[in-house]
Write a structure and sequence with these properties.
By secondary structure, this protein is α/β, with parallel strands linked by helices. The protein contains twelve helices and 17 strands.
């Protein structure tokens, strides 16, 4: 029997990017495109592998968007199944989220493993309680594992052990909101391929989410990426949603098609190497010329324009006016958003800027270099400046990835432990955070990450 489903993830409804309601509407339009496609092509079901919502505290407009689109899918008799992502986890003192609300109201199946005395299991869907780890849809079993972060390898091992003891199973689609290590330089704490492989004997299709870039593993594990652009770094990534056709009798995937041509708002990035300009006026005119070249011929909705100033200034940094550059860009091109990022170094500073494989400025290497130079200013840590810079960079990455504060603290703790003298000092002055302090740290980390 042939079956066809839609696999999406990282929808991020309710993301008021740059504080703009227009961007929140863009994210809703992207999900509407997927829902309309599923209805128009009569898909058998639709799965959302985490992060339907951008935040756990959903506002009324965002909930209304989800309600409207899920209502249309329900009216078309297309089941929607999802798992909880890291962005929409319930608060620590609550077991209830807006996903639970939608599941209880019958708009979707929120799948999640059960926990009993430290053991994790996938239990069948209980319609009365609207809860369970898997649902059988005809000859297809759809299972779901929510975001567990650092605990994910242990959870997967326990679920694999449970499934290994079952005599038989139907054709299996499994959802998992976790990243695979090595897909993106700034993603830390992802699963290794071997940790993921423990599920392979028990599923024909593993639907991943969490990383906003499309990738797949061995024609078995598939990650579609985000529907809209959640950060300017993602604007060149291929991503979208999958349309999957399979034969349940032969347990073969017949076609896995990525739809990447969604209507999404354009992001335009411009990198201006400031060494080429000897005065602020020359730099301004140069930035306008480069932006014009990138913006030329663009019709339709107003794009997001980001201009990055990189390299070493050839004049005093006090003479650089980022505000003036932003105002001129806004006047000339009328983008939805204009951002000028000042990543320059003062005149006379040895930037030693590295280039990536595409000949662009390697921002990652530049960031690490600046952190190293900052540490070098303190003689107490000069001997281990490179190691400390790497720790600081990883802590920033973890905060941006919304990882729990306890995991971030352990990274700092391990960094401290590598130096005996620093470890001795820190053991007396830096106690481990309590659970309440951990929650405060998480809030602070999110504010710092924007």
């Amino acid at each position: 029997m042939k079956v066809r489903w839609i696999h999406t993830a990282d929808v991020h409804l309710g993301y008021y990017q740059y504080g703009l309601s227009e961007r929140a509407l863009d994210f809703a339009r992207a999900f509407k495109y997927v829902a309309d496609y599923a209805i128009r092509t009569s898909a058998d079901f639709l799965i959302i592998a985490g992060d339907l919502f951008h935040r756990r505290n959903v506002d009324a407009l965002t909930l209304g968007q989800a309600y409207e689109l899920l209502s249309e899918l329900r009216a078309a008799e297309i089941p929607v199944l999802c798992v909880e992502g890291n962005h929409e986890r319930a608060y620590y003192n609550s077991a209830w989220s807006w996903l639970n609300f939608l599941s209880n109201a019958g708009f979707l199946y929120l799948l999640s493993p059960s926990h009993d005395h430290g053991r994790v299991r996938l239990e069948p869907w209980d319609e009365e309680n609207r809860s369970g780890g898997y649902v059988d849809l005809g000859q297809v079993r759809v299972s779901g594992i929510k975001y567990y972060g650092a605990s994910a390898p242990t959870v997967l091992e326990q679920i694999a052990h449970q499934l290994s003891r079952e005599d038989s199973r139907p054709f299996s689609v499994m959802m998992l909101h976790e990243g695979l290590e090595g897909q993106l330089p700034r993603i830390t704490g992802g699963l290794s391929a071997s940790q993921l492989e423990v599920l392979r004997p028990y599923s024909e299709y593993l639907a991943l989410g969490h990383i906003h870039k499309q990738y797949d593993l061995a024609n078995w594990a598939f990650n579609p990426g985000s529907l809209e652009t959640c950060s300017v770094e993602e604007c060149s990534w291929e991503r979208g949603f999958y349309e999957v056709t399979a034969d349940t009798e032969t347990r073969r995937l017949l076609e896995v098609k990525l739809h990447s041509d969604l209507p999404r708002r354009a992001f335009v990035r411009v990198f201006v190497e400031v060494e080429r300009f000897s005065t602020p006026r020359e730099l301004l005119e140069g930035a306008l010329r480069q932006a014009e070249a990138r913006m030329r011929g663009r019709d339709g909705c107003r794009p997001v324009l980001e201009v990055s100033l990189i390299g070493t200034l050839q004049f005093s940094d006090s003479a650089l006016s980022v505000t003036e550059i932003e105002e001129r860009l806004r006047e000339e091109f009328d983008p939805l958003v204009v951002r000028v990022k000042n990543s320059t170094l003062p005149a006379g500073y040895d930037s030693r800027i590295a280039l990536d494989e595409e000949g662009q400025i390697d921002r990652r290497a530049l960031e690490l270099q600046v952190l190293t130079d900052l540490v070098l200013r303190d003689a107490r840590y000069a001997d281990s400046a490179a190691e400390w810079a790497a720790v600081f960079q990883r802590v920033k990455d973890m905060a941006l990835d919304d990882l729990p504060p306890q995991e971030i603290f352990r990274v700092v703790e391990r960094g401290i432990a590598r130096k005996d003298t620093v470890a001795h000092y820190s053991a007396r002055s830096t106690p481990a955070p309590s659970s309440q302090e951990g929650e405060h740290a998480e809030c602070a980390g999110k504010e710092a990450a924007g």
